[in-house]
Each structure stands twice: as C-alpha cells, then as structure tokens.
Amino acid sequence: MSHHHSKPPPGFVMARPVTVVASLIVLSGAGEVQAVGLASVQAEARLCLQGRLPAACERALDQTEQLQRRAADIEAYPCQTLLLALQADVILQQLGHGRGERALADLSAAGRGCVGL
Fold first, then answer.
1. How far is CA 113 from the centre of its chain?
2. pLDDT in 10s for each residue of the chain, 117 residues
3. Which of 35, 38, 76, 79 is the most exposed place for a label (fewest CB within 10 A)?
4. In the chain, where the domains are located
5. Cβ distance 92 to 99 under 8 Å?
6. What is the pTM for the complete model shown?
C-alpha cells in the first residue's frame, strides 16, 4: 500500500471538484445559452433603441450575435447582414449616438428579412 505522497500511476488524471462540476455543466448543456429567437431579439433591441432600458442593449447585443451566427451557419447571408446592421445600431445607442427612427427601421427590416430563423 502506498502512502498519500506517492505519485499516481501514469495516465491517471486527478480532477478537482470544481473542474468536474464545470465539465458536467458544459456537457449537460446547462452552461449554454438558450436558443434565441427573433422575437426575443426584437423585444430587447426595441427597448434599447428607444432608450427606455439601457440594460436591454447588452442583452440585445448578445442575442443578436447568437442569431447572426446562426444565420451565417445556415448561409442566410441577407439576414446576417441585417443583423450585423442591427448590432451596429445597438452599439451606437450604447455610445450615445443612437440613430432613432432609422435604427428602428433597421430593426423592422431584420424582422422581415430573418423570418423563420
């Protein structure tokens, strides 16, 4: 019997509890962001672009990023382009240089151009 200071056999991997828990969360999908739908993006982006809820800008940016990546994955490039424009509008709003009605028009265009995503 070996004492507690002996080296583990070759190939033996010792994991710390934190590592194991984090791995289980990722593998189970619990660490992944829920699939974002267009309606959710539109709601957050509208709140942001109207200046009513600044915290919505960060959520809108994150959700729009997920959606535009999904558009790229399925090669829906016109939709992806509209979503990239929407991201730019959200960033401008965060910087205090919102485009007002033009930004809301971009939001509507993304809604029409990304149906079914």
1. 19
2. 555 555 655 665 555 544 433 333 334 333 344 467 999 999 999 999 999 888 999 999 999 999 999 999 999 999 999 999 999 999 999 999 999 999 999 999 999 999 988
3. 35
4. 38-113
5. yes
6. 0.69
